[in-house]
Design a protein that fits this description.
By secondary structure, the chain is mainly α. It is 64% helix and 0% strand. The chain is globular, with a radius of gyration of 19 Å.
Length: 226
């Protein structure tokens, strides 16, 4: 029995048919579901994914790509769990493959999960002295707004490692867009950095209040004092 057969058996055993319809409705019926809640999904797949310790990046991505093509949405979530568990096997050379996956079957759940993986890869590159942000410039200008969202969000959780100039420039580059998921991403990225540098974010948001959408501005300062 191979890994993918074992994963299917484990997920199907954890599925609760009564969850299927609500899960599909929550995702606007864009995907079909087995009916496995996130905690049960992680538990069902944990040992199988942990068994891949030491896997090379090429094989890891092959497994992920195969999971990404499965019709049930839980498999894309397992793929993201797999990447997260073995993210140290990845480097900037693998960013095109990761972004190509994010471009497929895209919605906020898979895109935001991939933003975290991409961010981890770029943070590791940054801490090695490389310019991780250079690899996000094309994504920031991509015709697919989901990849622009990843570019906007990739520094989430970086705190002191955040390149504030890049963050603020990216926010302004996307500020004119009407797309809800872009406006939300701008606010989220700024709000996250505000946990580390509240005064800088407040100053930026107020200086560019006319350029930022109401949503982005409100989200950026959501946890700031009036």
């Amino acid at each position: 029995m191979n890994l993918h057969e074992e994963l299917r058996i484990a997920l199907e055993a954890a599925a609760e048919p009564g969850r299927t319809a609500p899960m599909q409705a929550y995702m606007r019926d864009q995907f079909v579901f087995l009916g496995v809640a996130a905690p049960q999904r992680r538990l069902a797949a944990r040992d199988l994914l942990a068994g891949l310790k030491g896997i090379d990046a090429g094989t890891l991505l092959e497994h992920v790509q195969r999971l990404w093509q499965q019709p049930e949405r839980e498999y894309q979530h397992v793929a993201l769990d797999m990447l997260d568990m073995h993210r140290r096997q990845l480097n900037i050379a693998h960013l095109p493959a990761l972004l190509a996956l994010a471009h497929q079957r895209a919605w906020w759940d898979s895109v935001d999960g991939m933003a975290g993986i991409v961010g981890d890869v770029l943070l590791a590159e940054h801490r090695r002295g490389g310019d991780g942000h250079a690899h996000m410039s094309d994504a920031l200008r991509h015709t697919d707004f989901w990849l622009r969202r990843i570019a906007m969000l990739h520094q989430l959780g970086w705190r002191a490692d955040t390149d504030a100039v890049w963050l603020f420039d990216a926010a302004l580059a996307l500020a004119h867009e009407d797309e809800f998921f872009i406006r939300k991403a701008i606010g989220w990225a700024l709000r996250d950095y505000a946990r580390h540098a509240p005064e800088a974010v407040t100053a930026f948001a107020n200086a560019h209040r006319q350029q930022l959408s109401t949503l982005s501005y409100r989200e950026a300062l959501k946890h700031q004092p009036p």
